[in-house]
Amino acid sequence: MNKIMYIPLDERPCNYQYPQLLAKMTELELLVPQKSILGNMKKPANIDLLVSWMEQKIEAVSHLLISIDMLVYGGIVPSRLHQLTYETCMERLSFLRLVKEKKPNLKIFAFDLIMRVPAYNSSEEEPDYYEEFGEDLFRLGWLYDKRDQSLLNEQDSMELKDIEKKIPLEVQQDFLQRRTKNFSVTQEVVNLVEEEIIDY
């Protein structure tokens, strides 16, 4: 019987409980870390404990189904809030390379989310400044994309200048720097697929 190690996106029932219920309908055995390791909403998972658990259990499994957001940031909401360095992100991701080197026959299936930009003001699942600037940050990104495609008209250009003045510089920097780091992680995930570290 195949044993699958499953590292979920977060602790919510749709990601944690439902896959386990589905597995019980089959002959597959699903190994899942205890929920207490996985954090809660804005509180990230304990990555050290998670990696330690994986190292202890990995020898017994044939497949690893893993959320990159959980492994690197500690969950989906922490992926939108973290202050991790690029180096820390890459170090956490390198765990997959180490695992594959030790267990070449292990099949690794990974999934990685592109960070959203909500079009409304709410900090429930975003940094605190989204309460005031969420909608403006959405517009900022939308207008930057139009600018990058040389599609800005005069009205768009005026709106962009107004929004750039309205959103504090430190908020803009935090917003853009985190997205840049997360994009770099996704690029490295693609590299790991090309290197056949990640099978799919």
Describe the structure.
It is a single chain. The protein is α/β, with parallel strands linked by helices. It has two domains: 3-115 and 178-194; 130-175, no CATH class. The chain has nine helices and four strands, in the order βαβαβααααβααα. It has a four-stranded parallel sheet with strand order 2-1-3-4. Strand 1, helix 1 (13-24) and strand 2 form a beta-alpha-beta unit. The radius of gyration is 19 Å and the shape is elongated. The two termini are 21 Å apart.
Name the helicity range: 40-55%
Residue fraction in strands: 5-15%
- Oligomerization state: single chain
Structural class designation: alpha/beta
- How many domain modules? 2
Low-confidence residue ranges: none
Largest sheet: 4 strands, parallel
Q: How many strands in all? A: 4
Shape: elongated
Number of helices: 9
CA-based gyration radius: 19 Å
Distance between the termini: 21 Å
Strand order of the largest sheet: 2-1-3-4
Following the backbone from N to C, one meets helices and strands in this order, namely EHEHEHHHHEHHH
- Average residue pLDDT: 96
Task: Supply the key terms.
9 helices, alpha/beta, single chain, 54% helix, 200 residues, 2 domains, elongated, 4-stranded parallel β-sheet
Short structural summary:
With 200 residues, this protein is α/β, with parallel strands linked by helices. The protein has helices at 13-24, 47-57, 68-73, 76-79, 86-93, 95-102, 130-148, 154-166, 169-194, and strands spanning 3-7, 29-31, 63-67, 107-111.
